[in-house]
Amino acid sequence: MPPSMIGSYTDFLEDMVTGQLRGKTAIVTGAASGIGRATAALFAARGAAVLAVDRDEKGLSELRDVSVLAVDLTTAGAAERVFAHCAEVVGVPDVLANIAGRAGDRSAAETTDEDFDAFLRTNLGTTFALSRAAVIAFGEAGGAIVNTSSAFALTGVAGSAPYSAAKGAVSSLTRQMAADYGRRGIRVNAVAPGLIETPATAARIATGTFDDLVTRSRPLARVGQPIDVARVIAFLASDEADFVTGLTVPVDGGWSSTHFRD
What we know:
Strands 3-2-1-4-5-6-7 form a seven-stranded parallel sheet, sandwiched between helices. It has one domain (20-251): 3-Layer(aba) Sandwich (Rossmann fold), CATH 3.40.50. The mean pLDDT is 88. 42% of the residues lie in helices and 14% in strands. Helix 2 packs across helix 8 (226-237). The protein has helices at 3-18, 34-45, 57-61, 78-89, 113-138, 161-181, 202-206, 226-237, and strands at 25-29, 49-54, 67-70, 95-97, 143-148, 186-193, 248-251. With 262 residues, it is an alpha/beta fold.
């Protein structure tokens, strides 16, 4: 291929990735930090109009090139408020990235009813409410929902009962809503992150807490970064995934699908 053609082809590929979400209007929850923050920034960089949602107003204020809404998604009517605000300020959405959630390590015997309710409300309840609002807002025009499950939902891990149960339910909801709304052109998928370096995990990663359980037991031994997950979310939200629905995609360096030892 002549150099001039190589340059043109490279420019074409760069523009295709840069504009992967051009024309999309997206709601991204959990956007003040970690995976949500990386996703909101990447969506904007790839051409989407973005409403970034989180209860952390200060974290939201540090974002650029997006609109923001500070709200506690566990409160009554929060989902409807988010979608109404998006339609008014950004535009009618056709993408929802459900990233807000709560992690935690404990066994069933260590989990109170109040703890369990909190895990379900934060991880499953908010995802359900926002997804319900999304299919109403999308109407007959179609759209894409990307939920956040967990690698812990794909395999048993000691000491994570309420978290794993809630995230497993997110994967189940993803499949069910894909079945319910596919004929309306609505695609519903999920990502299942493994160990990702975020403000919630950074200190324990630094002290080696996860080395034996996670890092040394997977083929890709580096610690995952928020952008690793954000790129997969962006793909699933884009028209490039137009024939993909009902899946939970692990983004965990192979941890949930392999048994590896040094």
